[in-house]
Specification:
Pfam families: Terminase_2. With 161 residues, this protein is mostly helical. The protein contains 7 helices and no strands.
């Protein structure tokens, strides 16, 4: 569908295609603010078709397929392989990333020997320790843990053994 003959209708359709509300697009097109008229105009078949055409045209321009990107990288590689090896290598690296040639980076946080991360609480105040215990105390013990029966958080052994 070609550009709409009515300049206000064209402006309205373009504003709608940009994502404006019908009321805002109506004002943008130079009409006086009227929600009902804006809504009615937005359902006009010619305007709706024009909005779809504008959106599709924008989507086609914005769509750059993986093949397009790989082709561009190959062009960069071909143009720089002799002159600048760093650029050529970068193009190859980007192409490899796009095609999933690299394994995802794995980061694991652990303490010495793969165990727990040691935390030094020797200089922590009593108030801070109480807050930490309130926050993390429920996470510290569970069924099967060494201090399963001790809910005081003091780590003392029970005397019933």
């Amino acid at each position: 569908m070609p550009v709409l003959k009515n300049a206000r209708h064209e402006a309205f359709a373009q504003a709608l295609a940009k994502g404006m509300t019908a009321t805002d697009a109506y004002l943008e097109a130079g009409y006086k603010g009227d929600r009902t008229a804006a809504s009615r105009l937005s359902t006009n078949v010619n305007i709706a078709s024009r909005v779809d055409q504008i959106k599709n045209r924008v989507a086609e321009k914005a769509e750059w397929t993986a093949a397009d990107r790989l082709s561009a990288l190959k062009t960069i590689f071909d143009g720089h392989a002799e002159k600048d090896a760093r650029v050529a290598i970068s193009a190859i690296a980007e192409a490899n990333k796009m095609q999933g040639s690299y394994a995802p980076a794995k980061r694991e946080l652990s303490g010495p020997g793969g165990g727990a991360i040691p935390i030094d609480l020797t200089n922590v105040s009593a108030d801070d320790l109480e807050r930490l215990e309130a926050l993390f105390g429920p996470l510290a013990g569970g069924p099967g843990d060494d201090d399963e029966g001790d809910t005081s958080g003091e780590g003392s052994e029970s005397s019933g053994s």
